[in-house]
Amino acid sequence: MSKVIGDLTSPDIIHRHPDNPLLTCKDVPYPSSLVFNAGVAKYQGRYVMLFRNDVFTEDRKYQDTNLGLAFSDDGVRWSVEPQPCFSWRDEEVERVYDPRLSVIDGRCAVCFAVDTRHGLRGGVALTEDFHHYDIQSLSVPDNRNMVLFPEKIGGDYVRLERPFPVYSRVHTIPDGNPYHCHFDCWISRSPDLKYWGSSELLLAVEDVPFANDKVGPAAPPVKTHSGWLTTFHAVDIDASRGKNGWEPAWRKRYCAGIMLLDIENPERIIGLSREPLIAPQASYEAEGGFRNNVIFPGGMILEDSGEVKIYYGAADAVECLATADVEDLIALCHPL
Ligand code: BMA
Predict the structure, then answer these.
(1) SS3 of 195, please?
(2) Fewer CB within 10 Å, N- or C-terminus of the chain?
(3) Domains of the chain listed by start with CATH number
(4) Residue 18: is the preceding peptide bond cis (ω within 30°)?
(5) For position 4, what pLDDT does the model report?
(6) Against a cut of 0.85, is the pTM above it?
(7) Ligand 1 proximal residues by C-beta, below 6 Å
(8) 154 near 264, Cβ under 8 Å?
(9) What is the dihedral of CA 290, 294, 296, 302, to 10 degrees?
């Protein structure tokens, strides 16, 4: 049976931005109900954000998901473009969401999740203008939460991802019922962004003291003098949790974790924090959202000053920013 995880808090080195939430549906000049799980990068001299925009009716019936585009000069004050920049809906594809941005060799790569009638797929695309997306690959189901490293390593593109092994990783939650959701973070390589292989397990649920359900990628990694610094999402489930958000019941909590991977061989974890990096505590993380108690980083930027900006979706409802010093983040990562 899975362990029960108790109260969790964020360390003092994490500073939530006083202007949080930085972006909400009120900032969007077209139909918008929930703005969250954005990818953020510095590209061509400014900050760019590609955000997930979910649209509901006034009586909270789901209608649509598209991707919105916003730009900023300082990474804090954002202005949203007049129209959504991407959506994909046809006989097979239901929606695209949770975009992640990586600038590799001057090109902007976008990873995203695709819900299809035959399963959840992870996509990788290239774009120059955030309106035209040249799709490089779509995984077989079920896989998503993909993020790309910002440069080739040993001649390969490298990505983190979270496949869904529903038959082999069944666990029981504390009420004793089988629960088909024990998913881990994997790493794969590609010579060209199209063909992916050399897959290895990177981080398992059992490695993370504050998870009992699933762990997977969050924001794309950043390069530091000590290794690739990367956030991950860590989920714990507790059957005693009831209604908490718009849905009839929400039994999970999503925290952000942080780990350090070897520069030459990112398949090796150098260190990991045993405590969450960001646990849901602020009101916009824990109350009034679509699913409360969800922290989901999608963008991480290392500034020349050593400040790290971590952009995260909060409560599946709004987009937020937390900052920390890069040395403090590295110091949190202890050998497994
Ligand atoms: C996952 C995805 C994410 C979301 C999370 C928490 O399954 O849908 O986009 O943030 O659940 O609800």
Answers:
(1) coil
(2) N
(3) 16-335 (2.115.10.20)
(4) no
(5) 84
(6) yes
(7) 37, 98, 254, 291, 294, 296, 313, 316
(8) yes
(9) 120
